[in-house]
Design brief:
- By secondary structure, this protein is α/β, with parallel strands linked by helices.
- The protein has a single domain, classed as Cupredoxins -  blue copper proteins (Immunoglobulin-like), CATH 2.60.40.420.
- Helix content is 23%, strand content 34%.
- It contains 2 helices and 7 strands.
- It has helices spanning 3-25, 103-106; strands at 30-36, 39-41, 44-47, 51-57, 84-89, 93-98, 109-114.
- Bound molecules: copper (II) ion.
- The site of copper (II) ion has 6 residues, from loops.
Length: 116
């Protein structure tokens, strides 16, 4: 194998590894919102009814939470880097949420639009 063929083989291998890493991250019909630098990414999301949203904490050492006051959540359900929270949205509507400890300090909030 010459060096060009080797480079192509390595490229093909790295592409297949990326694909398998992505597909194993979250099940189908789960939409991931990443938390980094005190932000929900994306902060605004539109989904169809029945979709599950997963909030993943990708900080180095900061905990956060996902607090839907209108849904009667516990405001102190914090989760740490490497952990996540999930919620399935069956009803159509607009659902605002905040990170309760960082809403005032970092404007850390988001909104989920559930539409048919
Ligand atoms: Cu937070």
């Amino acid at each position: 194998m010459n060096s060009r063929e080797l480079a192509v083989a390595i490229l093909a291998l790295s592409i297949s590894l990326q694909v398998s890493a992505e597909t194993s991250a979250a099940p189908e019909n789960v939409v991931v919102i990443e938390i980094r630098d005190y932000q929900f990414m994306p902060a605004e999301l539109t989904i169809a009814p029945g979709t599950t949203v997963r909030w993943e904490n990708h900080e180095r050492r900061q905990y956060h939470n996902v607090y839907f006051e209108q849904l009667g959540d516990e405001p102190r359900d914090y989760f740490w880097p490497g952990e996540y929270r999930e919620r399935t949205f069956d009803e159509v509507g607009t659902f605002e949420y905040i990170c309760e400890p960082h809403n005032s300090s970092h404007a850390m909030r988001g909104v989920i639009h559930v539409k048919e």
